[in-house]
Amino acid sequence: MEEKKRGSWGSKFGMILATAGFSIGFGNLWRFPYMVGTNGGGAFVLVYILCTILIGLPLMIMEITLGRKSQASPIPGSAKLFGKKSPWRIIGISGNIYNLFAWITFSILKGWILGYAFLFMIGTFKGVSAEQAQTMFEGYRANPIFGILCFFIFEFLVWLVVSKDLQKGIEKYCSWMLPTLFLMMIILAIRSLTLPGAIEGVKWYLKPDFSVITGRTFLAAAGQIFFSMGIGMAVSWMYGSYMNPKDSDVVGSTAKVAIMDTVAALLAGLVIFPAVFAYGLAPTEGQGLLFVTMTTVFAEMPAGQLFGTLFFILVLFAALTSEFGGREAWIGNIKEMFHTNMSKRKIATIVVGTAFILGIPITFSYTGLFDGVTIFGKDLFTAVDFIACNFFLIVGPLFMAFYLPMKWKWKNFMIDVNEGIDPKSKLRIYNWMKPLFYYILPIFMVYMALNLFGIV
After folding, report:
1. Phi-psi label, residue 303: left if phi above 0, alpha if psi -120 to 50, beta otherwise
2. Are strands 374-375 and 378-379 parallel, antiparallel or unpaired?
3. For residue range 232-272, what is the model confidence (pLDDT) as tens digits?
4. How far apart are CA 6 and CA 8, in angstroms?
5. All domains of the chain, ordered by start, with CATH?
6. Which pTM does this prediction carry?
7. DSSP labels for 277-331?
């Protein structure tokens, strides 16, 4: 009865699509391309795939299993599993703190995506040059009305979905948004690959230059995987808590999510880099790759208004599906921590409304209203982004990597993960995988933490 009250997935496929929808988000279509562009092209792609297998997939399996085992939202679930005073509770808490910071940074960027989709639709960017695209982006970013309006509409769309029950909300919408997202990506990739000169972009993107691979490349790839797959963000825990331990396959489901997430990232590169090279633009523009470089590409491309609109709607879909999970985690936490009888709709209104209010100062940080306001010498947006992505995103996975060998223990872990898997399935945790979980993961996470503090 309690399980039904908390909500549960209507089907295994629905769970996979919802989890993949969370993973396939802004990280794939915004951050992955500019990380590739600033980290050596094909070399980064190769390291990224390797780190997905050795770092991302194991950590996600662990987080989903903890959620399924707890049958509770991350904050109360971590108290249930580890004890109310246990330091291991940080595994369930840190991701929610990250979500809080992410609300007030990335949601604003996602609002701009919505705005750009509309501007492309009405033909605003027809024939603009790279310089004009840069000037227009700076102008829109500094316009408080544009920023707040786009931010509000984006949050309202999120609220429409997360205010509903799990099956009627997130599961239902992801079941059509994710396939549509992949279809749009394939259409745009085909268009990009058929442009004159696109092959040079493909070569740069997929042909690795091993000489540029360093320890920093692995750190950048791992950080991108955490951001993209959503590891340590509390959502994998939350979605895992909706799974029935008796008939759910953690390993198989997680593998499918990881494959879809990686394919989406690679497709994003095939949409962007062939087009960038075809028009003689630089692939190393960093965060401006999306708003400036791609705007310039579509402005010059035949039928660019159509493909530009399609591209930004694609990114908007990805932004929305990833945002659903972050809000769902906090809605579940509030309901279970305070044992409230409030409807999900009311809790969702509080959560989404709080996200909007907290994001307003960050929106104004580009308008001149908060000029000179800094944290650690950084403007508000950059400071919050730095704290979220360089600290709280690492804390949960770091503790999780050590929780397994120190407390969970291998035999218990194997039993917990493999429960519910079809006996005929070969996708499961085996004894030979122990060194990966016991040694490689903890060592790598320590390396990431030391690098964060400038020690290595």
Report:
1. left
2. antiparallel
3. 888 999 999 999 888 889 999 999 999 999 999 899 889 88
4. 7
5. 2-452 (1.10.4160.10)
6. 0.89
7. HHTT--S--TTHIIIIIHHHHHHHSTTHHHHHHHHHHHHHHHHHHHHHHHHHHHH
